[in-house]
Batch of 3 targets.
Target 1
Amino acid sequence: MKALRIGVILFGLCDLVLTLGYYFRQDWATSTWPWTVSPLDYLLVSSFLAGATVVILWLGLVGDWGAAAGAAMNVGLMNTGAAVYLFQSGLQRRAITFAVFALCNVGVLVWSIRQPIRDRRGVSRFLRGSFGLFSVLLLFASVQLLRRSPTIFPWRIEPETETMFGWLFLGSAVYFIYGFVRPSWHNMRGQLLAFLAYDVVLILPYALMFPTVQPEHFQSLCAYFAVLVYSSVVAIYYLFIDKRTRGWRITTR
């Protein structure tokens, strides 16, 4: 399994490079998106990539492969939805690329779901309740985006980008639902790592929006920022402060 762990870590580092490319809006990175979007849209994509990066690196470092099942569901659903939408939009080459990724995710899911979760530390009711809350919020956001609601984000997004983001949020919702219905620390740590990375990318840019946000987007900004703060506090507490969960060594009891 050592070779597998090294391969996963290398893949995570490649994802980190792509994350930085989107964050700094490098042409070689942003050209992988199906169409040109605004700088804030690229920032949001980089936040999702950052979340995926830390989960991939964490899995490679600890090698608890059973914990990859929820992540595979997450990314697999994102890629499947994107592939279908891009095909319907006439972007066949892009659709094929996402479809190939989706098939790879299915393969990872089938394999990982058969692997045991070695770290079975329990979780508090508060953390599980927070996962339920995050699941509801992400489901709500994904439905609104797929319905092309104009008020989810504190900036204007083009309809086709709303649909793509809707699939991103739906995949994330499934990830948190999976942790909620199958609670164990290593089945929930990945989600918190991903959410914290997502928050780190977005929280300062969102804070800086308050003086300039358009009035029609002010409530969305307040709600979104509150979620970023709450999820950051929850993630930091359970990842680095709580004595039961802050250790990174796998605990089998």
Target 2
Amino acid sequence: MFNFENSAAWAGARDQRDELASFREQFHIPRHQESESVYFCGNSLGLQPRKTRDYVNQELEDWAKLGVEGHFKPHTGWFAYHELLRESTARLVGALPHEVVVMNHLTVNLHLLLVSFYRPSADRYKIICEGGAFPSDRYALQSQVEWHGFDAEDALIELQPRKGEHIVRQEDILAAIEDCGDSLALVMLGGVHYFTGQVLDMKTITEAAHEVEAYAGFDLAHAAGNLELQLHDWNVDFAAWCSYKYLNGGPGTVAGAYVHERHARNPHLPRFAGWWGNDPAQRFSMPHRFVPVPSADSWQLSNAPILEMAALRASMELFERAGMKRLREKSLELTGYLLHVIRAVLLDKGNPGLLEVITPFEEQQQGCQLSLQFNTGGRSVFESMTASGVISDWREPDQEGRSGGVIRVAPVPLYNSFMDVWRFGEALRTAL
């Protein structure tokens, strides 16, 4: 248990003791007037590491000086540039190195993986996903189902919270898997729900899917760089994530994918083929027949986007130095302090019912994000806080039609401080 105090003195003293505090200096913090803003939007777009410009400029200089020969320059040649991200990516998501690859963008990777892991039959064709999933996930699943000739209204089982609740209970997820039984082809869920911030028990869900002989895959857009993941040990079949949120790779940058080794090393598993997924030993001999690399690399289609990967390298080096264990520990404390500050402000205002935190309070179901549901006036609160230099994220009312909408707030342990949290509380006090 943490002993919090809603004061600038407490927050400043806690920052002095923070062994990760120096990482903040490695990022460009947006400014508001004469001071740094309170940037709590890393769940939407992470901040730029200070080394990003150097890494990208190096590749631009090499392109200018070397032209095509840059593919084979020592140490960082473009031909194998994705290898520079392999080890750090594997450690980030708890995978073996040959189970991960950095490539493409999130929804592209989801489609490529669904080609391999959604192979429906007349009897086994259903997919379990979360209701209110991020739209691109829903679109991808719907289009895959319809591509195979099924009706999405029948094939997609969309999990919904119980009436009056905000999150889907674990027992309801497991019950849905059991109920589908032999008709279930795939469980495809967000590891962290983008709207509520709920963290799912991916290990138990995977086990349940495998019990009925279905695959289990996860969208980790809000989980990679946020949680301690153990994809290999959890026996997850596949996963994909973006790199522009918690991973600070830059807007719209290159994404990542994971395929468990039992699938990655199976040359008979169907997949879409491309030049860069072919055995690199034969790549320039231009073979007529595709020979998949015995790793997640075989899902690659084209050569690496070097400038995007250069930007991501700068951030991944910081993750390597900080370590996800330490980051997760600080994240839980930061988010706990944020909850404490919000409650203190509401009590001071004499109206604790002005908003509801719809993110679960239990540590195992909580990441960096808290979602604040307003009964009314949420948009004006958000705009007032933005005008005061607090950058968070506004989401329109959810599908149940609540009038106030949600402010998503994400204190990121790599660059946010306890003083940021206290300043957020004071801005909320003023806005209310």
Target 3
Amino acid sequence: MGRKLLAVMLAVVLAVAIAGPSLADNYPSKPIKFIINFSAGGTTDTAARLMSSKATEILQQALICMNKPGAGGTLGVSEVARAKGNGYTIGTCNMPAVAIIPLTRKVPYEPFKDLVQVCAVMPYEYALMVRGDSPWKTWEEFVEYVKKNPGKVTYGSPGTGTTNHLVTARIGKELGLSWNHVPFQGGVKETAALLGGHVDIINNTTASVASSIKAGKIRVLLVTSEERFGMVPDVPTMKEKGFKFSQISYMSVVAPAGTPPAALEKLSAAFQVACSDKGVIKSCAQLDLHPKFIPGKQYQALLEKLSAEWGALLPELGVKIKK
């Protein structure tokens, strides 16, 4: 009886060993759920849909885009983290959802254990902006007003713990500004609040408000990213204004822990092609978006470095580190 059982077990192991490569070759054999962790119409949503269209061609299976916004991007990321690691659920992820927000509050996932970084695909590009009919024409005029009216000005962000929130808070700390943070559920609602006169200034991606900038409904006062934008070439960067830091964040593609390496490799390769595709690049450029591919392991190392740096900085901004 023991010999028969051993023979059966050996047969199963052999079958799996033989079938393994063919299973990998067959991936993907059905559509892949692609969870976008910010609202429809925003920068992440727009870029993700442009890239997923090309990735669909490469993988020969549809990437079904589904928006799951909220909590600074962590709601969508948590849905990916709790999915089966079979290669058929992936999602977008913003840097703070793994490197910053989990430091400040409890999230339903362990960022460096429950998720695998497939690759980073695009740096976010940010600026501080006001309504086009506001009285402030320059960054200096705005700062002067805030200083003369302590506690009166409000600034919006797409969520507490995002770089939008924290970099703006850091700017305020360095300049001695007394203003109030108002978080929103994504950049689209943040923009709507600005246009509706509910907040005075927002930190947002220029791509998500490109049409409003061109129409004169929104005025960019300061670029918080490292380089000036083609859309507003005359607007200075933070570094040009004397700050020693800039706003750095990436959009990446993540998968649940346990996703087969073969699936991760195919997904990464598909998005790498999407990032270098002329059609995708052209469409993104019209919105001042610039795809940039970073391999998953390399980006993971950057995330861990950024997490350590922000962990040291947060207490200085009055943000409590969770115990």
